[in-house]
Structures are given as C-alpha cells and as structure tokens.
Amino acid sequence: MKKIIITLLALMMLPLAACGAKDEPTSQTPPAGETPAATERPDYVRGEDEVTGKVTVYTTMEETQQEALKEMWNKYYPNSQIEIQADSVGTLATRIRGDESNDADVVIGGLFAADGDTYHDILQPYTAVNDSEQLYHDESGYYTYYDVQVMSLVVNPELRDELGLEINGYEDLLDPKLEGKIILAAPDASSSGWRQLQTILATMGDKFDDEKGWDYVEKLMKNSFSTTSSKDVYNLVINGEYVVGLSYESTVAALIKDGAPVENIYMEEGNTAMAGGAAIVKTAPNLTAAEAMMDLLASTEFQDIRAEQSSGRGSNGKSILVDLPKEDTLNMVDLDFAYLAANKEKMIEKWNTLWAETH
C-alpha cells in the first residue's frame, strides 16, 4: 500500500515540475528581436543607434547638475559623446550670435518664462515627447522646462541671533540693525537679482510694479550691498560677511544639505514661481541628439535625480520634492510674463537710478 501511495504522489508531482520548468525561461528571456537593455528603456528615450555623434551643451548649470546630466546621457546614449561648456546665459548667447563656427546643439539653463522672444533668434522650436507631464509650457514652443524657481532669503543664524533679530520676510530686512549687513544681486547682471526684484514688486505693493513696491525697494537698498554674482550672495552669507542675502531656494537648500551653516527662509509676505529650462540652438549640428536631450530634461527621472542631488524643484508634475516645501504653502503670487518681457528694460533702468541715488 505504501508503495502505491508513493507512486501516485510522484505521478501527481510531474505536471507541477513540468510547469515550473516551462515558466522559468519565459521570465528571463526577452521577446524575439529585443535585448534585455531594450526592454528597460523609458518610452521617452530613443534607441541607442539613433542617437550618435557629439552633442555640445552650453549651460548655466552648476557642476553637480552637470554630472547628473552626463551620467544619465551616457547611460542611455553610449554611442553619443556629451561635451559641456558652462557660463552665464548672456555670455553663451553672445558666443552663439557672434561665432558662426560655434557647434552648440542646446542651451540648458538661464532661459525663463518671462524672456519673451529675447533668444528666439538663436533657437528653434521643439516640444518634448513627455510635454503632457509638465506643469509649465512655453506658449511659443521654444523652451523645454525642467526647473521651477522659487525665491528665498539665505540667513546666517549665528549673526542674526547676535543682533537679536527675527527674519521672516522682506519687511524684517528694513530693521536699522541690518544696515550694511544685507547682500543682493543686481537685477541687470544676475538672474537671481531680476527674480528677486520681480518677487518684491509682486508682494510688497498693492499691485505689481506700483510706487508702494518701489518705495520698499528704495528702503531696502539703503541697508544693502549689491553684487553682480548670484554666487556671492550665498557664499558671503555662509562666510559670515553678511547676515542675510536675497537668493534662490534650491541653491540654499543644496548648500544646507552639504553642511552650510545657514537657514533657508521663505518670505512671509509671499513668493513667486517661474519656470526655467532649455532649448535647441537654431544651427544645431546634431539635431537628433538635441531633441533627445530635451526629452531627457523634461523627464521625471532626470528631475528626480536633480532633486535628490541638488534640491532642484522640477517642472514635471510627477517629479519629487527634496528638502523643499510644496508651492501651495508659500502664498504664491502670479506673475504677468508678457508684462515682464515688455517692461524689463524700464524696470532695470529704474532700479539703477534708485541705486545711484541711495549710494
């Protein structure tokens, strides 16, 4: 009887063993004509053999973001060499306009929603394949956004506490104890300075660009030192030369993550957001690679890596936030981008006149 039972059990196990043996290679073997790597490529990534040659990137991104971009590009496009040249957007644009032999394929960074048609003469339109995921879109079709800029104050807490102050917003910067202890970037020389001026005029007046807002600007100038470099603002606060600086949130958050002894203060009066991004150069030698680059920048993968490594706020609605608050907690004020583009020169001139009068 025991022999019969054992035999029956063995016979019953045969189909199960056969099923296991049959399923095993199915899960490990890719469909005919595909390689394992091909099945792992996101839908916004083109084929390896489609993107080849050199892609030349002109960028304002700092080195951490540059390295993240290189790593991701090399991961998906090993047959394409990426070359990066970094500088201010003004210098890069001048280089493209003045040197017919330049080989730039894309400009990444320094391009903002309020630019109007400032750079359209050196760029060409393109819409990323994953544009539907974006929270911000360029109506003219030139820019591919990957960044959202929100402003903040970088504060040295040790120096602030020595003065016995609280700094929670713009109004606190008018305290007489802060005279000569505030650093800001000039709006005619720095994108952070221009963005801070926009935010001040949007939050400190009864309406944008009114006299009440400019009255505040004039009072702030009397307490402040001006620089032509956005980097000076946070570096000199970190070094203890100034108590507070007017800066970008993501830069300050990244510095704090790296151990800088400063605080990132969001102005209690309100804030503004502006999308920034990249575009394809009109004379791009490697158009296929340039288009692939735009698709990559708009992706959640790149924006998530950027958030993790440098606390950047992404423009993709699916991207994560790292060490940053949600926009709906910051009392955001909408900006009229068309007005900014049309009146930038006049506003910068007014700033320069006031600065000359107060210094």
Account of the 3D structure:
With about 350 residues, the chain is α/β, with parallel strands linked by helices. The protein has helices spanning about 1-30, 35-40, 65-75, 90-100, 155-160, 190-205, 210-220, 230-240, 250-255, 285-295, 300-310, 335-359, and strands spanning about 55-60, 80-85, 105-110, 125, 145-155, 180-185, 225, 245-250, 265, 275-280. The longest helix is centred in the N-terminal third of the chain and has 27 residues, at about 1-30. The radius of gyration is 26 Å and the shape is globular. It starts with a helix and ends with a helix.
Mean pLDDT: 89
Number of strands: 10
The shape, in one word, is globular
User: Which percent range fits the helix content?
Assistant: 40-55%
Tell me the radius of gyration. Answer: 26 Å
- First-to-last CA distance: 108 Å
Strand content: 15-25%
Question: Count of DSSP helices?
Answer: 12
Give me the strand/helix succession: HHEHEHEEEHEHHEHEHEEHHH
Biggest sheet layout: 10 strands, mixed
Q: Which regions contain 5 or more consecutive residues with pLDDT less than 50? A: 1-39
| Protein structure class | alpha/beta
